[in-house]
Amino acid sequence: xxxxxxxxxxLKKEKNxxxxxxxxxxxxxxxxxxxxxxSLGLSQEAMKVDADIILFAGVHFMxxxxxxxxxxxxxxxxDLKAGCSLAESCPAPLFKEFTEAHPDHIVITYVNCSAExxxxxxxxxxxxxxxxxxxxIPKDKPIIFAPDKNLGKYVMEQTGRDMxxxxxxxxxxxxxxxxxxxxxxxxxxxxxxIAHPESETHILKTANYIGSTxxxxxxxxxxxxxxxxxxxxxxxxHKMKQEVPxxxxxxxxxxxxxxxxxxxCGYMKMNTLQKVYDCLLNETPEINVPDxxxxxxxxxxERMLELS
Length: 308
Ligand code: 13P
Ligand code: SF4
What we know:
Blueprint: H1 4-14, E1 17-22, H2 27-32, E2 35-37, H3 39-48, E3 53-57, H4 60-69, E4 74-76, H5 85-88, H6 92-100, E5 106-110, H7 115-118, E6 123-125, H8 130-135, E7 143-146, H9 149-159, E8 163-165, H10 178-187, E9 192-195, H11 201-204, E10 209-210, H12 213-222, E11 227-231, H13 236-243, E12 248-251, H14 273-282, E13 286-287, H15 291-307
Parallel strand pairs: 1-2, 1-3, 3-4, 5-6, 5-7, 7-8, 9-10, 9-11, 11-12
Antiparallel strand pairs: 4-13
Helix pairs in contact: 1-14, 3-4, 4-15, 12-13
The structure holds 1,3-dihydroxyacetonephosphate and iron/sulfur cluster (SF4).
């Protein structure tokens, strides 16, 4: 009998579909994907897709972004409930009030937000281009940055710009334990600490390198060190192990008592290989974005892609 992976690969061909997956997806899903990447890479890839169907193995805002960028394709997501604490922290009606209270501000939003919030935005950013894009804004222009206050603080520190921050955060990156991290580092003083900028300032202060998931993978490949403590969602370790099989990769410890003693995103992990198969077979759940929202949300995403 054929394995689930084999059946997915067959179905993908039969349906003329591609699978785009984020690095936080479970290993089996990454293995059947046509492209695995960070939020920026996935957006760039989604735009180029020529197939009929994009199965987005990631979370809801990522699938929505793919639909905004490539609206004639059918975009499907294995589990509709695969959300994101950052996107949920920023409901569009409240964000609209916030922007209207500061009409002189440029509105910059992290891609981890809904299409409705993107439609209220001047420029979208991802973790790999946020610093560069904020640096490109004229110094006399005040900036609203939403929804991630931790990424926002990091960008402020890197650029020397003051920004008005929305009070959102990533539940996964906020769960890293500084005490446990310091204890782990004491046992591994030869390790480099690498962290995602959604982490809190006290974690970022310990890091030798801070960057997007793609940036972190590139760092372990190019840095001569043999050992890394990795402060981001544990799904990234699958690709890292493939890229640097002889290096030691240690997940940064989380405060949460979970099975892997590391940080896992419950939203990302809602997608399973079985759900990927069912989703491809039934071509549902489908992601659609109303035309008026899509047209408005496309503008700040395209600005980001131009500036990246
Ligand atoms: P990147 O992969 O773009 O660094 O984003 C991380 C993340 O948390 C996605 O939800
Ligand atoms: Fe959202 Fe954090 Fe999960 Fe990424 S890791 S999808 S930012 S909750």
